[in-house]
Amino acid sequence: MEAARLIAEGGMRDFRQAKLKAGARLGVGEESSLPTNREVEDALREHQRLFQADSQPLHLRRLREAATEAMRFFADFEPRLVGPVLEGTADAHSAVCLHLHADDPAAVLVRLAERGIDYRERQRRLRLDPNHSEDCPAVRFDAGDAPIDLTILPLSRLHHAPLDRVDDRPMRRAPLAVVQALLDPPRAQ
């Protein structure tokens, strides 16, 4: 599927934009004729399995290791891993995406400043439920060769995940223990 190829090889992260670009390349003008986000994600997994079998697992492991380090660093903010690094579709173009929880977003910025970490601030629009979206503070910085992307949510959102862009269900999120388990090989019994 062309949209999955654009994501895997071109570094596009926005499923809608990838679908529109693929549709234009293939002469499909009707948005209703384009695949669903779930179909694109499934095709992305298949593309990675077929064409990136050597490199993608290495990138994924490196990013999951960076995620555990970042989650330890931000432990006071109840970090949760989200996105391609958690889902297993991360590649060389992916960032480690974390949700941090703080009633005062400035506390996260202070932590970064205290450690001399250069960061860029912005806003990220999240769908909190089917009828409500909200702009949340977001921060991006590099930890070695791993880009880290933070979204800062109020502490009250810790147990209420925003909606996932793929299927409009609560976003899958993982605490540090789950991410560490993804890195540890299963033990024989």
Describe the structure in your own words.
- This protein is 40% helix and 21% strand.
- The longest helix has 18 residues, at 56-73.
- The chain has two domains: 2-51; 56-183, Beta Polymerase, domain 2.
- By secondary structure, it is of the alpha+beta class.
- The chain contains seven helices and five strands, in the order ααααβαβαβββα.
- This is Nucleotidyltransferase.
- It comes from Dokdonella koreensis DS-123.
Describe the global form.
globular
**Percent helix range:** 25-40%
Strand content: 15-25%
In DSSP terms (H or I, runs of 4 or more residues), the helix count works out at 7
Low-confidence stretches: none
Strand order of the largest sheet: 1-2-5-4-3
Protein name: Nucleotidyltransferase
Organism: Dokdonella koreensis DS-123
At a glance:
The chain has seven helices and five strands, in the order H-H-H-H-E-H-E-H-E-E-E-H. The protein is of the alpha+beta class and 189 residues long. It comes from Dokdonella koreensis DS-123.
Features of the shown structure:
Nucleotidyltransferase; 189 residues; alpha+beta; 5 strands; single chain; 40% helix; five-stranded mixed sheet; Beta Polymerase, domain 2
Q: What is this structure's SSE topology?
A:
Layout: H1 2-10, H2 15-26, H3 37-51, H4 56-73, E1 80-82, H5 84-87, E2 96-101, H6 106-114, E3 120-129, E4 132-143, E5 146-153, H7 176-183
Helix pairs in contact: 1-2, 1-3, 4-7
Organism: Dokdonella koreensis DS-123
Protein name: Nucleotidyltransferase
